[in-house]
Amino acid sequence: MNILLFLIAMLGILLLIIMFLMRYVLLVVTVENRSMTPTLEAGDRVLMVRHWPTRWLRKGHIVLIDSGYGMPTRPKYFTTAFYIKRIVALGGETLSTSHTNTADSTYPSEHNVGNEQDHWFIPAGYFFAQGDGPRSIDSRQWGALPLQSVQAVALMKLPHKVRAYST
Questions:
Q1: Residues contacting 83, CB < 8 A, separation 6+
Q2: What is the sign, positive or negative, of the torsion defined by CA atoms of 34, 35, 41, 44?
Q3: Which of 24, 49, 86, 149 is the most exposed place for a label (fewest CB within 10 A)?
Q4: Pairwise CA distance, residues 114 & 111, whole Å
């Protein structure tokens, strides 16, 4: 009897921990477009960790960006509130990007534009994000983004939901 009560109590505590994690630490995001193709396709679900310390961010991380966070005004190039992109450069780095096959060839004025290459210096406290797909709207249009705009970091791609249809 005591063992049964102990197991029920432990199950209850475990359930509370899972609920806490799902509410305050973890986030499931559904990808809505193809800017991260082939890594992420439209409809893919991604498990993300909220409140990731900015000092732990690294190149290659896939992040959820809040387009209005940490900026005095939302740049005109942001069309939605949140974006999923890959970090390709961090503060203190210089980056060369190609602007062929990008979704928009209009660029902000804070970088040098060559014939087919752009050269960016990323200031401290900022990062440069790009989609994996060839037609992505990203930092090539927005410029460097403040680290505070990162709302979550991808942990894993989740399996697709199984849908059962009855006729």
A1: 35, 64, 65, 67, 129, 138
A2: negative
A3: 24
A4: 10
- Give tens-digit pLDDT for 19-71: 887 778 888 999 988 899 999 999 999 999 998 888 899 999 999 998 776 55
- Among the listed residues 91, 99, 106, 105, the one whose alpha carbon sits nearest the alpha carbon of residue 145: 91
Residues 88, 59 contacting (CB under 8 angstroms): yes
Q: Point out which residues pair with 84 in neighbouring strands.
A: 64
The domain limits of the chain are 26-158
The three state secondary structure string of the chain is CHHHHHHHHHHHHHHHHHHHHHHHHEEEEECCCCCCCCCCCCCCEEEEEECCCHHHCCCCCEEEEECCCCCCCCCCCCCCCEEEEEEEEECCCEEEEECCCCCCCCCCCCCEECCCEEEEECCCCEEEEECCCCCCCCHHHHCCEEHHHEEEEEEEEECCCCCCCCC
Q: Which fold has domain 26-158?
A: Umud Fragment, subunit A (2.10.109)
pTM listed for this prediction = 0.75
